[in-house]
Amino acid sequence: NPEDLAALLAFKASSDPSNSLFSWVNSSDPCSATWLGVSCDPTTHRVTGLFLQDLNLAGTTQPLSQLAHLRHLSLNRNLLYSSSLPLNLSSWPQLKHLYLSHNHFDGAFPTGISQLHRLRRLDLSHNSFSGEIPLTYLIRLPRLLTLRLESNSFTGDLNSVNPSSSSNSSSSISDFNVSNNNLTGEIPRWLSQFPASSFAGNKHLCGKPLPNECSNLTVDSGSRIADKKTRGKKDLLVLVYIGADAVAALGIIVVVTCCEIKKRNRSGTHMVVNGFGSRRTNGTRGRGKGEEEEMVVFEGCKGVDEVGDLLKASAELLGNGCMGSTYKVVMDGGDVVAAKMVRGRTKKKEVDGWLGLIGGLRHSNIVSLRAYHHSNHELLLVYDFLPNGSLHSLLHGNRGPGRTPLEWSTRLKVASDSAQGLAFLHAYDKANIFHGHLTSSNILVDHLGAACITDIGLRQLFPAATTSSSPDDAYEAPEFLLTQRKHFTQKCDVYSFGVILLEILTGKMTAEEGEVSLVKWVVQRVARDLEECARQVFDFELLVHKGMEVEMMAVLQLALLCVAQLPKDRPKMSVVHRMIEDIRMRGGREVGAKSIFNDLSFDSSPSP
Ligand SMILES: Nc1ncnc2c1ncn2[C@@H]1O[C@H](COP(=O)(O)OP(=O)(O)OP(=O)(O)O)[C@@H](O)[C@H]1O
């Protein structure tokens, strides 16, 4: 297309002092595949993608505004700067991905953002943009997943917008960072689920998740009350909406079992104060010989005070796992919880000791255990309900036509979040704790897109349920599977996490019937030449992400370290998390797998 050709040549003429774009020549077609970093629509022959990172480009993007069909613009790590007018994005109405990080752009936030209805990823980080962030417009972009604005000079108050009052909620944003700016005021509740690192380096920003509390809470109290009211209304709607379906599924096994429990119960209530703050205990004793039943409710539990509350509620079966069944339960007041019924006998003392510890765990990448009810033959666990499914369903669900591919950056974020949750767990309680049954179905995604690990510690309570042969064996470390005396360690969790990384990279399930395990499948393919063969193992959905292969390669190397045969050769989870964050933050490109590995030391040196 002559217009596209002219725009590209004008950009080269004004912004390519190092002649990095030497393949862009007037005599050839930009869509002929010989032009560096240019991709086109094969039908319309219009330029749809420019992938021009790390090329020493220095100038403005002005000439590129003629590329009206652009969907992907990646100019990270160049020397580009703003023209006299603020960057105007409205000339690219079809834009899905815009990466401008690590350049010299300055001035106000680019204009025309509200017209980019297809925008999914926006990365303006590490520039010198200033002025206010137009959150009002950004949260209305229905598909926006990534908003990276860190290391600029943005000012203003994040509280100026209340997503619950806008037509679209903010929940589509799953990757958010405004650290190292000059923002002020209290972090609003809808953003407080993101980690503290997303807000760090703003001297006058306060409130959750940052450690500094806001001294002047009155500023926000009005909006908080409004928030609560809106939420109340929303909950009511959810209740009405779910009501019809859920009543049909009323009770299922939860109710049946709870009826049985109720028949046997005589109850009394007392307060117990333990190391995790106050918890309410409804002690109930059954009449049967030696039977003892008890409902323990941890701090922060909403809507569930005693087992009878679950009895009254509507329940819907979510699925059956190797230890029991899990239900979505809508409580009377509209609170939604996940109730997991685990069948099996275990001693009360052990349950109380262990679940007391697990119930005290609070981390943004761990699904909170809110309450449990224990009887002699089963255990009912009440968790926060996470609405966005499991990593397993995101990776493997509906692989047929019509599936929305799971993007690389989303996969990497899930990996990072779950590594962070696991690293926190491994450091907790004098590092004496492990997950024990880490699988992709035990990584769930919350309403903000953060990944959280669940089912912590159930292996310790019910070892028999997880030791019989099952498809989940593919997650088990070899030393655990092969030895008679089953001894689980944190390094077994690291192995399971490595298998999950391979699942993320390959899109393959851990062990489909009659197939070799995923670890063997990958190792066999990359054994001879990692660099050469890695592309054969990557999920075909990921191959569209040109320029991300270095990141994938780095993650592959990390995964292979985690699944090392000998536990001492596997890195600690804190190291694994740091490596993933390095790959994410520095983009893998400059870092390269090798230098990441050189940077970090293990608790023991890896085998050759
Ligand atoms: N807290 C939760 N919020 C939302 N969905 C959940 C929650 N916990 C579990 N689920 C969903 O319920 C279903 C059944 O989960 P369950 O933990 O019983 O089995 P599993 O994870 O599939 O297998 P396993 O028992 O081996 O861990 C899964 O689809 C899971 O995604």
Automatic annotation (TrEMBL):
The chain crosses the membrane at residues 236-259. The keyword NAD does not apply. It holds the Pfam family LRR_1. Residues 312-580 form the Protein kinase domain. InterPro entries: Kinase-like_dom_sf, Leu-rich_rpt, LRR_dom_sf, LRR_N_plant-typ, PRK1-6/SRF4-like, Prot_kinase_dom, Protein_kinase_ATP_BS. It is found in: Membrane; Secreted, Cell wall. One of its GO terms (molecular function) is protein kinase activity. SUPFAM superfamilies: L domain-like (SSF52058), Protein kinase-like (PK-like) (SSF56112). GO terms for cellular component: membrane. ATP binds at K340. Its main location: membrane. Keywords: ATP-binding, Cell wall, Leucine-rich repeat, Membrane, Nucleotide-binding, Repeat, Secreted, Signal, Transmembrane, Transmembrane helix. Belongs to the polygalacturonase-inhibiting protein family. This is Protein kinase domain-containing protein.
